[in-house]
Amino acid sequence: xxxxxxxxxxxxxxxxxxxxxxxxxxxxxxxxxxxxxxxxxxxxxxxxxxxxxxxxxxxxxxxxxxxxxxxxxxxxxxxxxxxxxxxxxxxxxxxxxxxxxxxxxxxxxxxxxxxxxxxxxxxxxxxxxxxxxxxxxxxxxxxxxxxxxxxxxxxxxxxxxxxxxxxxxxxxxxxxxxxxxxxxxxxxxxxxxxxxxxxxxxxxxxxxxxxxxxxxxxxxxxxxxxxxxxxxxxxxxxxxxxxxxxxxxxxxxxxxxxxxxxxxxxxxxxxxxxxxxxxxxxxxxxxxxxxxxxxxxxxxxxxxxxxxxxxxxxxxxxxxxxxxxxxxxxxxxxxxxxxxxxxxxxxxxxxxxxxxxxxxxxxxxxxxxxxxxxxxxxxxxxxxxxxxxxxxxxxxxxxxxxxxxxxxxxxxxxxxxxxxxxxxxxxxxxxxxxxxxxxxxxxxxxxxxxxxxxxxxxxx
Length: 460
What we know:
Blueprint lengths: L1 H18 L36 H4 L11 E17 L24 E13 L2 E8 L4 E4 L12 E16 L4 E21 H6 L4 H6 L8 E9 L5 E11 L4 E8 L2 E12 L4 H8 L7 E9 L2 E10 L2 E10 L6 E6 L7 E4 L5 E13 L2 E10 L18 E11 L4 E12 L2 E6 L10 E20 L2
Antiparallel strand pairs: 1-2, 1-21, 2-3, 3-5, 4-5, 5-6, 6-7, 6-8, 7-10, 8-9, 9-12, 10-11, 11-14, 12-13, 13-16, 14-15, 16-17, 17-18, 18-19, 19-21, 20-21
């Protein structure tokens, strides 16, 4: 038994380390709901009220009181998105001549992999401890270096890893409460092209620039920005309660707090291989490698869920509010005083997510499930949509099942297809560097496929 637990611990450690290597893509905002496979099958309807396994730690820690004995759940997800851009008149700043942006259309969607781990152990008849490790926020879009929107974005990669120790307490036969601490690590990488040709031809050395071929959009460099909060761990909390209105009906309420992320890192500026550009830019104190910092407030959320059992059917519903209005801008500050802040105004709106679903107890060993959800986008307008996260409202259609292998082992599988509304974009790059305020205009078409699998082990 000891050897088996050591081997299991080694596997879980390797899994947790891998979680920092992947991120989701094209979520509504950049909050992730992919926290288990059992909920994936019914679009996460009723997630705060219907306890299926140890993953209730994330959705409502009060649900731990409905589990019997010690349990471990290990989850994996494959997220396959598309974010296909169709250009429609993107151009340089009018002050720089207003020429059309060159380059190809592109699809920034990247297949991503997610993992979650949850462990629950009763302390006594009325209290249970649990810990979850998951990725509540993340995104990844990755375009080719020569695409038409390269000055706005090339790579955008946000990874988070959240440790969520929790306690559940049974108040009486009807009411359970729970709460947890969230300790979050974050790692972010952003890159974009810089049109050093436009800067060069706007300088006193314009004739030399033109003679060397360093004209507009013909002498691109690149900015690579990396940062993390490893030296300043971020904290938040979550609370929940579950109340049995009757033996057939349960309501669940869950709240997750805001979390402030303070990132520190490096900015690397790469100049094109053109001696004139290198001389012109080298004479300026800007575009020199430097340290950076940024801070972002990740949103709070509040969920109300309902689960109602009738015979072999359990009907599920959920409404979740997310406070995305906390995300008003993304500002990156540089230690180099000659380098202007990089600012993206977001002005995001609070959102709602609505879902309904059903579990059908087909047999003693098999549960079938399905669900629908409507998920609002927080992006308020075409002017605020950016290629780093070009999402729109989406509709989920989900299917799944649970198969009970034995009294100790069960397996969950869930699949969702997300139909995403087309998203128009008319975003002007915000920069204080003359001539670089290009505007990306066009439309995004997108969809997402998500496949999730989960192993549940009742240890005792």
